[in-house]
Amino acid sequence: MYNTKIKVGIICPLDDEYDACKEILGLKNELELSGRVVSERKENNIEVYAIKAGVGKINCSSATQLVIDKCHPDFIIDTGVAGSLTKDLDIFDIVCAEHSYEYDPCSGKKLGKIPSEDDESCTVMNDPFYKKAFQEFSNRIREIMAINIRIGNVACGEKDVKNRQLRQELHENFNGLVCNWETSAVLSVASLNRVKAFSFRVISDLADEDMKVSFDANCKPALQKMFPVLKEFIFRGWLNRFY
User: Fold this and answer.
1) CA distances to 119, 142, 182 from 104, in Å
2) What local confidence, expressed as pLDDT, does residue 81 receive?
3) Is residue 242 part of a domain?
4) What pTM value is reported for the model?
5) What is the pLDDT of residues 109-122, one digit of tens each?
6) In the chain, what is the greatest distance between 2 CA atoms, to the nearest angstrom?
């Protein structure tokens, strides 16, 4: 199994996210692909392609489809920063999504209950076998890097979460650990194409009234914490367990 070529597509919404991914994963051969910047790394049985997608669902969904069409990956990985929705997680912790729920399509003044299956996207963590394997990886990362990784739900919508009331609402309605703009779009496109998907999101802010200040201060340092973890996952044999 380990001699089988595995192709990975990494979706990076922000320029800072793409730049950190390229630097830390050692990606090269940067080129323009249908108007998007893509870089790659080929090592042994692993091929990695990262794309500078742009912010928001439309940008990331179209970038995900482009990578799938042109690079034919076995895995799609949503990456970037996120806001924490719970006191149990802090700056620089990492959350790998099991389910992602879109909250901005919800009608009414208040968020409703967890949406129907049509509004939900899931990752390979939805499979108990894969979830157990990833727990082993997260335990290993805690030992060697002292970084906390959790598996849980993501609340996704194109709206900054920057007040405690909305933060609490998202946590309670979706059992959400983190929030961001793009995860659901990436996972939905991967699912439509029957490509296995992961989401690695590192916490840059606490989704409260200080969100903007915290994001500006922590975005780049948070990415410097996360991408070495992703590098370990991809290039040190862990990904083979999900093939």
Assistant:
1) 10, 34, 12
2) 98
3) no
4) 0.93
5) 455 443 444 456 78
6) 53
Provide the domain limits for residue 55: 6-235
In degrees, to the nearest 5, what angle opens at C-alpha 72 toward C-alphas 30 and 81? Answer: 60
Contact 38, 22 (CB under 8 A): no
Question: Within a domain: residue 166?
Answer: yes
Q: Do the domain assignments include residue 99?
A: yes
Angle at the Cα of 60 from the Cα atoms of 58 and 62, rounded to 5 degrees: 65
The helices-and-strands tally (H runs, E runs) of the chain is 6, 10
CATH of the domain at 37: 3.40.50.1580
**How many domains, in total, are found in the chain?**
1
- The torsion angle over the Cα atoms of residues 221, 158, 7 and 118, rounded to 10 degrees, is 140
User: Tokens in use for 144?
Assistant: 């060697």
Alpha helices in 72-163 (DSSP H): 128-145
150-164: pLDDT as tens digits: 999 999 999 999 999
The reply to whether 243 falls in a domain is: no
